[in-house]
Automatic annotation (TrEMBL):
Keywords: FAD, Flavoprotein, Monooxygenase, Oxidoreductase. InterPro entries: Acetoacetate_decarboxylase (IPR010451), ADC_dom_sf (IPR023375), FAD-bd (IPR002938), FAD-dep_Monooxygenase_BioMet (IPR050493), FAD/NAD-bd_sf (IPR036188). Residues 41-395 form the FAD-binding domain. Belongs to the paxM FAD-dependent monooxygenase family. It comes from the Eukaryota. GO terms for molecular function: FAD binding; lyase activity; monooxygenase activity. This is FAD-binding domain-containing protein.
Length: 724
């Protein structure tokens, strides 16, 4: 919303804001920007950089006010390059410059000062390398389009408010207060100094020294039809969509079209001592045709004839300035953008484009929901994202502007094209921003593919948040058959000699158990089923001689990929896929496990009778041991038989119950329970036969207990850890 004058605070410009502004803490972790109120953003300067920032931040839902010292906020100048790197930002935000006169840059022609042609490069095919076009556009047209989109009632977010004739006299960076020459003030969460090379905003960071680059530039426009009407000058403009340069050793004339090829834009760069342009002249010092012709007196007569056709009232000259590198672009709530931070000489055609890139980066790090308390850190991140590239292209521009020596250019004008054009600031800044957010919470769960960020799963939500609140609502139904079996055979399933039975008896106990899980929030309220073998009474001896006792799980089949992958990668669980069906009613329960129609396991619990829930401990087989023991093995890539990771893990029952307790709501016990495991063959089970054949050999001497347990509260197994 626009600032408005209020009686109670005199001539103060008050920003209307949500009453919650500044009071909400971002409690959703570093990934989520969910502050309920928009940021209040004041932009000093409504040039191309300021308006691009206003458009991007308005699209993010922020409340933007632009303060422009001129009366009409009209951009001065003539034409500019919209190189692919800058044009991509505009096109992704819905601005297509060809709709208002921009033309594609299809040809580069270079001449010596006497008119001899040095190069004639057709760029039409070469420019197809870039995902966005290279355009030449009138500066006023792009400025008007940006202004319209930033301030229009149409489009997303809150329309930016443009305040003309509003020269900023001072800024309080720490409190975000700007004071206008009129005495009015405005308070913002962010103040963006987009006020160009003569920036007053910059002095609050450093009163940086501007100095001459040694060059000045005449600039003017000539209608193409005027040049075409003269047989002397017509050959100079026979190529459309072309940038042409005439080079002298220490001066050059640059000509390129805009406005659908109807206007020719001239930038005539020369030693500043010859036109007496000084830095105090800013943009609008008038020049004369006589001055220009004198500076370029040694050039091709046809070129001079073309220059002579300029309307004298439109001919301007300005000094090309440079500036020392700033130690930083931001302090408190103030941040600089464009030429205020890094002024450019025009030799790479990147000045406006780099201001647009700044705006895109700033928009990226200040998304909708950004909290005011995050501002300082975000502004520093913006500078980190932009500083290296902006200063590199700034240096390229200096090199491209070096004088020729003995008719030989200092560098190829196209030498830095790949670096300049092969960049998309929206993508680049978004990539840095997301990785910066990831770095703020290093203890998150990652698993392949890591390119997309931390992985949601049972222990971690969509933005790295712990899933605890949905635990009690999760439902489970577990059907298990505990039986007596052979200790000596089960020992063949131990992964290392550190696993052994606590009891030397040759009769051991184990369980086949299947659990159906429902209402799992991390699966969108859906569920899955798992089926596994649990070997009781196992002791794991550590390297220091101490031991823990638990239930060893050699294999666990699950009916869904997501828990298999998360369990294997995050917990070291020996999980495999199988289709598992559970049919359960008041009198019976039947479970089958299969792989693509080949059924290899059946357990039946008939004649179910309800039992008391109080005696049920909630662990497999009702064991009161330390926890579930598993063995993790991750193979080394390209080195068969070698492991990248290999160690034992444990899930302590007591720790799991503290994280998420379960409530048993029903218990039913079965008489006459049966287990049938079939090995099948390699054709039926090409990836599981070696496992099912071992399971099928397990002898079942007697069923000890068979039960179906139902309840709520399913742990996410977050307490699983390495034993040593």
């Amino acid at each position: 919303m626009a600032p408005s004058k209020t009686v109670s605070d005199g001539d103060r410009v008050a920003f209307v804001t949500n009453s919650l502004h500044g009071s909400h803490l971002n409690g959703s972790g570093p990934f989520v920007d969910d502050h309920p109120a928009p940021l209040r953003i004041a932009i000093v300067g409504a040039g191309i950089g300021g308006l691009t920032a206003a458009l991007g931040l308005r699209r993010n839902g922020h409340q933007v006010d632009l303060f422009e010292q001129s009366r009409f906020a009209n951009e001065v100048g003539a034409a500019i390059h919209l190189a692919p790197n800058a044009n991509g930002i505009l096109r992704r935000w819905g601005i297509f410059a060809e709709e208002f006169g921009a033309i594609s840059m299809d040809r580069l022609v270079e001449h010596s000062q006497d008119g001899s042609r040095l190069k004639n490069i057709d760029l039409a095919m070469a420019n197809k390398r870039w995902q966005h076009p290279w355009h030449l556009v009138h500066r006023v047209n792009i400025h008007e389009k940006l202004k319209k989109l930033a301030t229009s009632d149409k489009g997303g977010g809150i329309p930016a408010q443009l305040h003309t004739s509003s020269k900023v006299a001072s800024i309080d960076p720490q409190n975000g207060i700007i004071t206008l020459e009129s005495g009015a003030t405005a308070t913002a969460d962010v103040v963006i100094g987009a006020d160009g090379i003569y920036s007053m905003s910059r002095k609050y960071i450093k009163d940086a020294r501007l100095f001459s680059s040694g060059k000045a530039a005449f600039r003017f426009l000539i209608p193409r039809e005027v040049a075409e009407a003269d047989p002397v000058t017509a050959p100079l403009v026979k190529f459309k969509n072309a940038l042409e340069i005439w080079f002298g050793d220490d001066r050059r004339i640059v000509m390129y079209p805009c406005n659908d090829n109807q206007l020719l834009n001239f930038v005539c760069i020369h030693p500043d001592t010859e036109s007496h342009a000084t830095k105090s002249d800013e943009w609008n010092k008038k020049a004369t045709i006589e001055q220009v012709l004198k500076v370029y007196r040694e050039f091709d007569p046809a070129v001079k004839a073309l220059i002579s056709k300029v309307d004298p009232l439109t001919l301007m000259v300005w000094q090309l300035l440079d500036m020392e590198k700033l130690p930083t672009w931001t302090t408190g709530k103030l941040v600089l953008l464009g030429d205020a931070a890094h002024p450019f000489t025009p030799h790479q055609g990147q000045g406006a484009g780099q201001a647009m890139e700044d705006a895109a980066a700033l928009t990226t790090v200040l998304p909708k929901g950004t909290a005011p308390e995050a501002i300082s850190e975000r502004l520093k991140l913006y500078e980190e994202i932009r500083s290296e590239r902006a200063h590199a292209i700034q240096q390229y521009s200096r090199l491209a502007g070096k004088d020729w020596e003995n008719g030989v250019p200092a560098i190829d004008m196209m030498a830095y094209t790949n670096h300049n054009f092969g960049h998309d600031e929206i993508d680049y800044a978004a990539n840095i921003f997301k990785r910066w957010k990831w770095s703020k919470k290093p203890n998150m769960y990652w698993r392949m593919p890591v390119a997309f960020g931390p992985f949601p799963g049972p222990r971690q939500g969509e933005y790295g948040r712990r899933r605890l609140t949905d635990g009690p609502a999760r439902r489970f139904t577990t059907a298990s058959i505990k039986f007596k079996t052979s200790r000596t055979f089960l020992e063949t399933l131990f992964p290392t000699a550190q696993f052994r039975f606590k009891d030397p008896s040759t009769v051991a106990t184990a369980s086949f158990s299947a659990t159906r899980l429902d209402n799992m929030a991390w699966l969108g309220g859906k569920g899955y089923t798992h089926f596994g073998l649990y070997v009781h009474g196992v002791q794991y001896t550590k390297k220091d001689g101490t031991s823990i006792h638990g239930t060893y799980m050699p294999v666990l089949f699950e009916s869904l990929t997501d828990p298999i992958v998360s369990g294997r990668e995050e917990l070291g669980m020996p999980k495999l896929f199988a289709d598992i069906d559970m049919e359960h009613d008041e009198t019976s329960c039947r479970v089958t496990a299969s792989w693509r129609g080949a059924t290899f396991a059946k357990i039946e619990l008939p004649n179910l009778r309800k039992d008391e829930t109080t005696a049920e401990q909630g662990t497999i087989g009702g064991e009161s041991d330390y926890g579930i023991l598993v063995y993790r093995y991750i193979p080394a890539v390209g080195e068969p038989g070698k492991a990248d990771a290999e160690y034992a893990c444990v899930v302590p029952h007591s720790e799991e119950s503290r994280v998420q307790s379960s409530t048993v709501t029903a218990v039913a016990r079965s008489a006459g329970a049966k287990v049938k495991i079939e090995a099948l063959d390699w054709e039926a089970l090409p990836t599981l036969h070696h496992i099912t054949s071992a399971l099928a050999e397990i002898p079942i001497y007697a069923v000890v207990d068979a039960k179906v347990v139902e309840g709520t509260g399913v742990s996410d197994v977050i307490s699983c850890r390495r034993i040593e």
